[in-house]
Amino acid sequence: MKKIHVNLSANSYNIYIDKDLLVKVGEMIAKGKEPCKTLLITDENIGKIYGEIVAENFRQNNFDVKLLALPPGEDQKNIENALLLYDHCFAHKLDRKSLIVALGGGVIGDLSGFIAATFMRGIPYIQIPTSLLAQVDSSIGGKVAVNHPKGKNMIGCFYQPTAVFIDTNTLSTLPSKEMVAGFVEVIKYGVIRDAELFAFLEKSMYDIFQLNHEALLKIIATSCQIKANVVEQDEKEKDLRAILNYGHTIGHAIETITNYKKYRHGEAVAIGMLYASKIAIELGLTDNTVFERQLSLIKNLGLSIQTGLKSESIIKALYTDKKTISGRLRFVLPTKIGEVIISDKVSDEILYRILDNPL
Ligand code: ADP
Ligand code: ZN
User: Fold this and answer.
1) How many domains, the chain?
2) Whether residue 339 is found in the same domain as residue 291
3) Which of 37, 152, 248, 264 is catalytic?
4) What sign for the dihedral angle of Cα 77, 23, 210, 127?
5) Could you tell me the residue range of the domain that residue 252 belongs to?
6) How many Cα neighbours within 13 Å face the side chain of 6?
7) 16 and 111 both lie in a single domain
8) What is the pLDDT of residue 306?
9) Mean pLDDT, rounded, for 8-28
10) 267 CA distance to ligand 2 centroid (A)?
11) Cα-based angle 141, 145, 151 (whole degrees, multiple of 5)
């Protein structure tokens, strides 16, 4: 088992990573918390496979568990479902010492975290992320939210969990497209902070997709550690945390103009990382190998990298992103594998030139 401590003074917590954690989590929590009323939130896909296993494990440790499964999908992350979940909190008589457990991907994690953050001004919650994306990204860092018709994650706050339990076994049932999308975020961590991780991905892609436990443990723990370090230094995204947006500036623009329908988040980010690398080369910040190495990893994942989108529409979407600061675009650009800088010196002219050419 790997344990990563996320040091956020009063809001510190641990991330535990191992196989078979789903049948240990109740016991582990019971060591530090009196058994209590617990709302276990999941989606129907995950609930069918793992819901009862986890619920039973909590019950064996005297927690009074109510299991609730929402339909799967990003559009479930809405305020109506938040209201429904508050009703369940009241019906199950949760109080400020009760527990919310999020068992699922990013959708369930963000929504359950939002409920935990707001019900009675905040009650404890545990994350059990089951998708690779949630395990390496959304379950760490305390961003919780629901979507609004005006945009994704527009209603939310920062709220840290009590602990995160990552069971690598859950990846055995994750659809391969989701596995690939999560893997892109791992590539991202390699590029922004860890050349050794990047080299490991190049060497071990086969083992990772065969779900070799040691390989999974390494990539998940390393990713969590990198994100934890960044979040520790900049919990509320004032500066450093922005490096986690590598590939996301253009990635978000691509997701927005295709209405979040055509690409999984990770697929759009992969394209965004390649464009960001092209921009960095154009500005003389780095050389072509940085691009080529990422391209080769991304191609091996079977992702298509041509969007057929017009540069004009991508650039327009870039300027309406909520992360734009006083009308200036900020890009996270690689200087080498393992290091990035943040730049607001990317001109529209460069953008047109890069986006008008195929990758
Ligand atoms: P993400 O984690 O990518 O932010 P979701 O929460 O929507 O997004 O999860 C992606 C999809 O994968 C959903 O359909 C979800 O039900 C499914 N899923 C997540 N984890 C697992 C798992 N371990 N086994 C099977 N399906 C899973
Ligand atoms: Zn992302």
Assistant:
1) 2
2) yes
3) 248
4) positive
5) 176-355
6) 28
7) yes
8) 86
9) 96
10) 10
11) 120
In this predicted structure, what is the pLDDT of residue 46? 98
Contact 94, 121 (CB under 8 A): no
Q: Is the CB of 128 under 6 A from ligand 1?
A: no
23 & 124 share domain: yes
> With a 6 A CB cut-off, is 107 part of the ligand 1 pocket?
yes
Which ligand has an atom closest to residue 174 CA?
1
42 Cβ closer than 6 Å to some ligand 1 atom: no
133: Cβ below 6 Å to ligand 1? yes
Specify whether 336 is catalytic: no
Residue 141 sits in a domain whose CATH number is: 3.40.50.1970
CA-132 nearest atom, ligand 1: 2
- Closest atom of ligand 1 relative to the 44 alpha carbon: 16
User: In whole angstroms, what is the distance from residue 157 CA to residue 117 CA?
Assistant: 8
Q: What is the pLDDT of residues 95-123, one digit of tens each?
A: 999 999 999 999 999 999 999 999 999 99
- Together in a domain, 198 and 292: yes
289 and 198 housed in the same domain? yes
Q: Which of 112, 143, 171 is the last residue of a domain?
A: 171
Which CATH number covers residue 187?
Answer: 1.20.1090.10
| Same domain for 181 and 145 | no
Q: What element of type H or E holds 144? A: strand 143-148
Of the three residues 133, 151, 171, the one that is the final residue of a domain is 171
Residue 265 annotated among the catalytic residues of the structure: yes
Q: Kindly report, residue by residue over 184-218, the tens digit of the pLDDT.
A: 999 999 999 999 999 999 999 999 999 999 999 99
Together in a domain, 136 and 199: no
Ligand 1 site, residue 127, Cβ cutoff 6 A: no
> How far is CA 231 from each of CA 111, 163, 310, rounded to the nearest angstrom?
20, 15, 35
Mean pLDDT, range 319-333, rounded to an integer: 81
Instruction: Tell me how far apart the alpha carbons of residues 338 and 335 are, in angstroms, rounded to a whole number.
Output: 8
Same domain, 180 and 164: no
Q: Is the pLDDT of residue 324 over 70?
A: no
- Among the options 218, 252, 264, 293, which is catalytic? 252
Token couple for 174: 């994750």
Check residue 151 and give its pLDDT.
86
| Residue pLDDT, tens place only, 337-356 | 999 999 999 999 999 999 99
